[in-house]
């Protein structure tokens, strides 16, 4: 019998935040839904979800975008995971990462949250930090710009040309993680280009 994976794209709700660095996790989940010609629908767990498959006959995928703000993402993530009976080791959280250069995708399971309040809240709500993460690099702000202002700002002109490729790479990383495991995904996405 096929298993279920929950893939969560972290971000903030509403049009004001759609194209910001902090919402790249949601852009990746949008890409995964678009690849399957699926549309999100409201879920009672406080998120928008898509129920689909990695490919026909393979593991079920539940794609989710919490309706809450980033820093309180945990409650809807935990609610959707409970609803679909998905254990923490199959809850893939896709999020922006300041400490990774822009245009880079890294994967890991567990570890610290690197000051990412959304990741911290998910770990608290599901009771463990040991869940897979697809970390999408947005890089550090230039000069003395505040990190909070940086993540809530839209991508710059030069970045916007690369964002679709970065989003596609991160979606590929999610699919590889689910189909072949963490090591295979790390070997492909952590290798120098």
Can you describe this structure?
The chain is built from 6 helices and 7 strands; from the N terminus they run E-H-E-E-E-H-E-E-H-E-H-H-H. The chain has 193 residues and is α/β, with parallel strands linked by helices. It has one domain: Peptidyl-tRNA hydrolase (Rossmann fold). It has a 7-stranded mixed β-sheet with strand order 2-3-4-1-5-7-6, sandwiched between helices. Strand 2 and strand 3 form a beta hairpin. Helix 5 (157-180) runs antiparallel to helix 6. The radius of gyration is 15 Å and the shape is globular.
- N-to-C CA distance: 37 Å
- Output the radius of gyration: 15 Å
What structural class do helix, strand and pairing data support? alpha/beta
How many domains? Answer: 1
CATH class: Alpha Beta
Q: Based on CA inertia axes, which overall geometry fits?
A: globular
User: CATH topology, what is it called?
Assistant: Rossmann fold
* Gross CATH architecture: 3-Layer(aba) Sandwich
* H and E string: EHEEEHEEHEHHH
Q: How do the strands and helices of this protein lay out in sequence?
A:
Elements: E1 4-9, H1 24-35, E2 41-43, E3 47-53, E4 60-66, H2 74-83, E5 91-97, E6 105-109, H3 117-126, E7 132-137, H4 147-151, H5 157-180, H6 182-189
Parallel strand pairs: 1-4, 1-5, 5-7
Antiparallel strand pairs: 2-3, 3-4, 6-7
Helix pairs in contact: 1-5, 2-3, 5-6
């Amino acid at each position: 019998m096929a298993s279920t994976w929950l893939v969560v794209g972290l971000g903030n709700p509403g049009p004001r935040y759609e194209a910001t660095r902090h919402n790249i996790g949601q852009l990746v989940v949008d890409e995964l839904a678009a690849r399957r010609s699926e549309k999100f629908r409201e879920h009672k767990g406080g998120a928008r979800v898509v129920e689909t498959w990695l490919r026909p006959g393979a593991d079920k995928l539940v794609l989710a975008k919490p309706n809450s703000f980033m820093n309180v993402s945990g409650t809807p993530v935990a609610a959707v995971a409970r609803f679909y009976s998905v254990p923490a080791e199959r809850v893939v959280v896709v999020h922006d990462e300041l400490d990774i250069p822009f245009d880079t995708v890294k994967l890991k399971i567990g570890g610290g949250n690197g000051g990412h309040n959304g990741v911290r809240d998910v770990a608290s709500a599901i009771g463990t930090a040991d869940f897979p993460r697809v970390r999408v690099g947005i890089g550090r702000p230039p000069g003395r710009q505040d990190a909070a202002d940086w993540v809530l700002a839209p991508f710059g002109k030069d970045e916007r040309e690369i964002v679709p490729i970065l989003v596609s790479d991160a979606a590929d990383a999610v699919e590889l993680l689910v189909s072949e495991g963490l090591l295979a995904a790390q070997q492909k996405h952590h290798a120098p280009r």
